[in-house]
């Protein structure tokens, strides 16, 4: 008998069918396993070359990297520490919405990570004390003031510099 519609088989064959163990291998379908979806590694658009694994996280929604006058102030701070833009990576978190703490660690391999302002905090970052250097698994972390909070406030500048000079 030839059945063209396989759904009709359940009306013709109403008994249950069981396969013996030695027959199961013969009748199993060789279904293609569903491929695992691999998430591509995070990539970042950043300013600098990160030669010294020194990462600065900023939050400038209207800029590609950092505001020009803030960059000049940052460059003078870096030069006081005998660093330049080639030594660091400046990452604008506003342009990296999907980037989390683990992505930053895996991509940059930072030895020092400075978060400039509350908005510069990546997802899944462990809680940090404000303007206090903390060390987590060999990584020096500093969550401090944003440049907007420091440019016209000498007390904030001084508190920031006291921490940065000891990095």
Description:
A hairpin with a 2-residue loop joins strand 5 and strand 6. The mean pLDDT is 87. Strands 1-3-2-4-6-5 form a six-stranded mixed beta sheet, with helices on one face. The protein is an alpha/beta fold and 167 residues long. The longest helix is centred in the middle third of the chain and has 13 residues, at 68-80. The N and C termini lie far apart (84 Å). The chain contains six helices and six strands; from the N terminus they run ααββαβαβββαα. It has one domain (46-164): Uracil-DNA Glycosylase, subunit E.
CATH topology: Uracil-DNA Glycosylase, subunit E
Instruction: Please identify which CATH superfamily we are dealing with.
Output: Uracil-DNA glycosylase-like domain
What is the CATH architecture assignment? 3-Layer(aba) Sandwich
The best one-word shape is rod-shaped
Unreliable stretches (pLDDT < 50, length at least 5) are none
The portion of residues forming beta strands comes to 15-25%
The total of beta strands comes to 6
Mean pLDDT: 87
Question: Reading side by side through the largest sheet, how are the strands ordered?
Answer: 1-3-2-4-6-5
Distance between the termini: 84 Å
Q: Give helix and strand order, one letter per element, not per position.
A: HHEEHEHEEEHH
Number of helices: 6
Helix percent band: 25-40%
